[in-house]
Amino acid sequence: MLSSSSLSIINHRWFFFVITFFAIYLAISYIITSFTQIDNEITDKKKTYVSYIDETSTTSNSHSCFGTESNEERYMTYLPHSGFHNQRNMLENAVFLSWVLNRTLIMPPVIFTKKSIIPHRPYNILYKMITGNMTNNVITCKRKGVEDNRCMFTQLDWEELMDFKFIKKNIRYIHRGDQNFNVNELYSFLNITNPENQVFTLAEETRYDFQFYDDENITKVSDDQFDHLIHLCSLQRRKEKLIHFGSIYHLNRFNLRFKKNIEFLKSVRENMIINHPVLLDIGDKISEQLGGLGSFIGVHLRLGDMGFDKKFGQKAEENVDSITKSLLNEIGDIPSSYNKLEEIEVSDSNYLIPTNTMIESEKCLRSISPEQRNFPIIYLASDKPRNDHRLKKFLREFPCVFMLFSNFEKYLEPLKKVKNPRDGALLYRYFVPFVDGIVAARGNKFIGTPESTFSDYVLRLHEHWVGPQ
Question: Which of 68, 120, 185, 438 has minimal Cβ neighbours within 10 Å of its Cβ?
Answer without folding.
Answer: 68
